[in-house]
Amino acid sequence: MNKFKQKNSQILISFLMLTVGSILAAYALETFLIPNTILDGGVTGISIIISKLTEIPISFLVLMLNIPFIFLGYKNMGIGFLIRSIYSMILFSLSLSYFENLGEVTNQILLATVYGGALLGIGVGLVIHFGGCVDGTESVALIISKKTSFSVGQVVLVFNLIIYLIAGTIFGIDRALYSLLTYFITFKVIDFVSEGLEQAKAALIVTDKGTDMADEIFKRLGRTVTKIKGKGLISGEKEVLYCVLTRIEVYELKKICHEMDQSSFVTILEVSEIIGDHIKNNKLRKKQKLKATQL
User: What is the pLDDT of residue 199?
Assistant: First the structure.
């Protein structure tokens, strides 16, 4: 019964934080950035451009344009990610519509860039930290990253540079440069809030159920795991799992560890650089797993 209450309280807290993050991100956009024609990156940035040119409500565009990206993310992240992301995006869209008539907080472009970018980063960071998403770009970037040699951060940066190049052509080079500055501020704040300074993370998991947990991580995240034999001073023989993943997969990894072995000990580490071949192609993963089962 206590476990049931604990699980319900965790779900409640996560959705509460998703709510706060979505509303804060929408507030930053509608009261700091959009009135000063400063663009966010990703799908939101595309929505702002289309809205400025056609007068279609940005709240509608954000929701519609994100739908296909979220279902792509669902195939890689599971039903939990889909539910949390749909909830976050609907609330984000409704909040954009609500804050649209509030007016700008400041017309000082530099203040709008810095404070709007910081507030947006806090909001999006909270959403990511609790397993949701308000922009489908990272979901697509994750898929591309797994099939190419590019990291998630590199793919997102290329997407956003293309968006800012288009914005510079339409709204002027100064708006594109301010938008790029906003992106870097937002990106750093997101990293701080979601507990990571880089896209790549490493997880060390000490558990009694190493094989089962490794299989579940591979099944749900598509990430291979290195198993190491360990021995605790008091707890005795243990299995230590080492796994490299991205920041938006950390929430799902924690969930897997909690479901598979509540006594497991998990440490999330920062990864500054990855050297060597990293299996990203699903076909290669399947072949490797098949070989492992045949040994």
Answer: 58
Domains of the chain: 2-193 (no CATH), 200-294 (3.30.70.120)
**Residue 19 Cα distances to 73, 128, 140, 192, angstroms:** 20, 12, 23, 19
Rounded to whole angstroms, the Cα distance separating 200 from 196 reads 8
pLDDT confidence of 207, banded at 50, 70, 90?
A: very high
With residue 167 as reference, give the H or E element that holds it.
Answer: helix 152-171
pLDDT digits (tens, 9 = 90+) for 59-88: 999 999 988 887 777 776 778 888 998 999
DSSP at 32: I
Asked whether the whole model's pTM tops 0.90, one would answer no
Contact in structure between 22 and 124 (CB atoms under 8 Å): no
**pLDDT computed for residue 279 by the predictor:** 47
Dist CA 124 CA 134 (whole Å): 7
* pLDDT per residue as tens digits for the range 165-181: 999 999 999 999 999 99
Chain position carrying tokens 């979220």: 70
Write the burial class of residue 4 (CB in 10 Å: 0-12 exposed, 13-18 middle, 19+ buried).
Answer: exposed
In three-state secondary structure terms, 39 is coil
Instruction: Report which of 5, 12, 229, 235 is spatially closest to residue 130, judged by C-alpha positions.
Output: 12
Helices and strands (H, E) in the chain, number of each type: 11, 4
